[in-house]
Amino acid sequence: MNFTSRIWYGIAFLVAAIAWSVGAAYAASAWNPLRTAEVTVVGQDLSPNGQEIAIFTDVVQADRKIECSTRGREPRVEARPAPVEITVASGGTNWHLIGVVEGAPDGVRIKCRPADGSTDTARYGTVVADLSSRGGTAKTVVWGGFAAGLAIAGLTVAARTRKELAHD
After folding, report:
1. pLDDT tens, 82-95?
2. DSSP string, 8-58
3. How many other β-carbons are positioned within 10 Å of the β-carbon of residue 131?
4. N or C: which end of the chain has fewer CB within 10 A?
5. Does residue 7 sit in helix, strand or coil?
6. Which of 50-54, 139-143, 162-166 is the least confident region?
7. In sequence order, which residues have a C-beta less than 8 Å from that of residue 72 and are 6 or more positions away?
8. Are residues 125 and 39 in contact, defined by beta-carbon separation less than 8 angstroms?
9. What CA–CA distance (Å, rounded) separates 112 from 99?
């Protein structure tokens, strides 16, 4: 291949951009198990078996901070806020994702309460699902495409530099 043409810079950019798009779409598909899941109302013992616990509410309270964590024999694990907005229709209710617990031990329960301590009429529910398995693959695709784009651009720079030095 003759990497002396400037078009290779565009190809390098396209390789990196396409890899980023494919990786982002693949990472987003990790949330698909939640879209069809059956939400279980909080209060039952959960056994995540190494998976994540997604926490939902039936009332969106954007102006309030809701704190959720595990309760059980093990040390408490705090839920991190949901990185995406997902609404699931389950049992005649629209449930809204508010948090995710990672690394919870088996036999725990989820407890949610408003940080301001005032009365809360919302119901909370959970879904145990594998949400992280696609993250590693998506990162590999993105960084692999970025590295391939850099390699093509580097080869182009080297070939063009060699060509210019040969003509001097």
Report:
1. 888 888 888 888 99
2. HHHHHHHHHHHHHHHHHHHHHGGGHHHHTPPPEESSS-B--TTSEEEEEES
3. 20
4. C
5. helix
6. 162-166
7. 45, 105, 107, 108, 109
8. yes
9. 10
Q: Which residues of 68-85 are buried (b: 16+ CB within 10 A; e: fewer)?
A: bbbebeeeebebeebeee
Q: Give the pLDDT confidence of 48-107 residue by residue, as tens digits.
A: 887 888 899 998 887 888 888 888 777 888 888 888 888 888 888 899 998 888 878 788
Instruction: Return the DSSP state at 60.
Output: -
6 DSSP 8-state letter: T
Element (H or E) spanning 160, and its range?
helix 133-166
Q: How many other C-beta atoms lie within 10 A of the C-beta of residue 136? A: 10
117 vs 132: CA distance, rounded Å: 32
